[in-house]
Write a structure and sequence with these properties.
Shape: elongated
Structural class: mainly alpha
Number of strands: 2
Distance between the termini: 21 Å
Order of helices and strands: HHEEHHHH
Number of helices: 6
Radius of gyration: 22 Å
Strand order of the largest sheet: 1-2
Helix content: 40-55%
Length: 151
């Protein structure tokens, strides 16, 4: 199948497929005489595996490790368990960070209970104040929390 069909079958944008190829997660396909990529069912299966892992917010490095085990079915999967345990810890930490962020945003929202002119907006006023000592300036942002485009 050509890349457009692979994209349709797996629900993956063409550029993301190319990205996974560049990252070495998806093997480069054979090419036709006209230099078109020709994908096999194994590409679709592997791409579906990668997409499922990404839907669980796994990193590309973590997926590489899982793919190595998937490619070596006789290997002991203890390291797979360890990787997933570490990811669970990471997700739990992010949930805690998101709960703190939610409380901060709700507190900020309370600064302007009703619409008024921007010059008297409590939210804008509060955001103009220096951050509390010891508060993270950029490290407090929770990556992946906005549902943006993920490859």
């Amino acid at each position: 199948m050509k890349i457009g069909e692979l994209a349709r079958v797996t629900g993956t944008p063409v550029e993301t497929i190319r990205y996974y190829e560049r990252e070495g997660l998806l093997a480069a396909p054979a090419r036709t005489d006209g230099n078109f990529r020709i994908y096999e069912d194994t590409h679709a299966e592997r791409l579906s595996f990668i997409r499922h892992c990404r839907s669980l917010d796994m990193s590309l490095d973590g997926i590489r490790i899982l793919l190595r085990f998937k490619d070596a079915p006789g290997a002991n999967c203890g390291d797979v368990n360890t990787l997933l345990d570490a990811h669970i810890v990471h997700v739990a930490a992010r949930i805690r960070e998101l709960r703190v962020l939610e409380r901060q945003l709700k507190s900020l929202r309370e600064q302007c209970p009703q619409a008024r002119d921007a010059a008297h907006c409590g939210i804008l006023h509060e955001l103009s104040q220096p951050a509390c000592p010891g508060a993270p300036i950029s490290g407090g942002h929770v990556h992946g929390a906005h549902g943006g485009v993920r490859k």
